[in-house]
Structures are given as C-alpha cells and as structure tokens.
Amino acid sequence: MPLNRDFVGRRFVADTPFLVGREHIRQFATAIQDDSPLSHDLEAAKAAGYIDLVAPPTFLTAVALWRPVVPVHDPQLGLDYSLVVHVEQRYSLRRPVVAGDELVVSATIADIRKAGRNELLISEYEFVTTGGEPVATARTALASRGTAA
Amino acid sequence: MLSAHMPAIIDYDDVEVGTRIPEREFRIRREDLVRYCGASGDFNVIHWNERAAQGVGLPGVIAHGMYTMATAARLVTDWAGDPGSVVDYGVRFSSPVPVPDDDAGATLVVSGVVEKKLEDNRVVVNLTVRFDGSKVLLASRATVQLA
C-alpha cells in the first residue's frame, strides 16, 4: 500500500530536549571502536580547546533514534517498517556536538516519492540547543520496498 | 615518536587535490553490533538476531548501515586528529555487510582521496568503502575542517 502523501510538509518536534551525556559519547565511541582521546578523555578534549568530550560525527544518529520524532509507526502514514531500508544519510554540522549540549530535535517530512517499485520517504532533521543555537541538520532517506502503486 | 593517540597534524597547505588517505581495514564483530544497538538506540532485530534476519531473506545478521558510515568516518577523523573536524558527511547505502557469528567478523576496507579544496581550510574527501571486494557505500563524501 502506498504511503500517505498528506504527510509531506508536516513537521514534528520532540517534547523533551536530548541531553548529550559524557558517558553516552564514550559508549558510542567505544561501540564504533573510535579511541580518539577527544571523545574519551576530558583533559585531552579541553587541551584541544573543547569545553567537554567531543561526539563522533555520526553521534546525532543516537540523538535521533533515542528521541524519535518522525511517526514511522503511525498507521495513517501507512509504512510497514519491516519493508524499510535506509538508503541515504547526510549530516551537516555547524559545530561539533559536545557533552552537555541540550538538543531539541525536530524533523520535517520533505518528500514521499516513487522510485521504481519502491517509495522514498525523505526526512529533514534539525538539532537546535535549548538556547536557540542551531547545531546541525540531517537528511534521511528511507526506502519502502515494493509499495509503489 | 608520536603515540597512537596523538592527533595527526594535517595542515591545509600540505594537502592537494589528489592527496590520498592511506587505506585501512576495520573489523566489525557481533559484539560491536550489540554495543552499537545500545549506544545508537537502533535495536532492529536484523542487527543481532540470526533467526529474524534470515526470516526476512537476509543471509544472516547484517551491520547497521550507520555502523558502516561511522566506521568510514574514522578514516577521516583519525587523519585530521579530531572527531569534531567533520562538518558535512553524506553517504548512500548500496549493499548490506553481513557479520558472521565468529571471531573474525567482517572487515571493511576504507580509503580516501581529497577531491576538492574549499575556503576556510576545508577539504572534501571522497571515501571508498569496500566489503568483500564490493563497494558498500556510494557517494560517500566528508567535508573536513583542517588546521
């Protein structure tokens, strides 16, 4: 069944800001086997000019997944998540994410379109501090396999 | 001698279009995927449950696409000496990376080449990420802030 095009243009904002934790940065860096001292050792991060531990560039994945805003499970959208494949991802960072950042996550469904037998669901994310500072944007393309009309 | 943890000093003026970042191999094992499930919040069963992965037609458990993307970024952030050096990073996922239930896991081979020099000491690195001889990421580019 095709996805509901009425969702294009809708914007969703997380109710609760996401507090980026030091231990979360360490755990994420450990999971991707990144032993950069700037993500593990507070003194090293400060010596390099940062106020706290520095997150690896794809850490925002964890922010977006632990604070989900796009209603992928809303029956009105009509997405069968077992058919979903992640096809494209992009991050643009105005500055690195550091421990202590409190980020408000929002996302807009930018497009739903046919791509052969599949459909693409394009979401554009914004990560802004609770103080109003824009930190990063992201674009995610999910393919819904075989659902094109 | 520099320790493994000392940031590499890559100066913008020493980098040219065509400068290569030496190829590296990165190993991914099941344990890493389980850690990544927890750290990222992506608990999709195809990344940790063989039975479920085979049930949807996969050969077995596969790595998160985002794990592959994160791993490829390490080539660049280790080169620049700073996980905060990447200002823009985009990829397309072209094929899955199966991670067998053994000690060897799966090995990604990652290399990079500077394809553009921008203003403000930024460069664009084109990354090549292979598994078992095939490219698993396409259009994989990182814009990197150098000193």
Automatic annotation (TrEMBL), chain A:
Residues 7-137 form the FAS1-like dehydratase domain. Transmembrane segments: none annotated. It holds the Pfam family FAS1_DH_region. Signal peptide: none annotated. This is FAS1-like dehydratase domain-containing protein. It comes from Protofrankia coriariae.
From TrEMBL, chain B:
Signal peptide: none annotated. It comes from the Bacteria. GO terms for cellular component: fatty acid synthase complex. Residues 23-123 form the MaoC-like domain. One of its GO terms (molecular function) is fatty acid synthase activity. Pfam families: MaoC_dehydratas (PF01575). One of its GO terms (biological process) is fatty acid biosynthetic process. Belongs to the enoyl-CoA hydratase/isomerase family. PANTHER family: (3R)-HYDROXYACYL-ACP DEHYDRATASE SUBUNIT HADB, 3-HYDROXYACYL-THIOESTER DEHYDRATASE HTDX-RELATED. This is MaoC domain protein dehydratase. It comes from Candidatus Protofrankia datiscae.
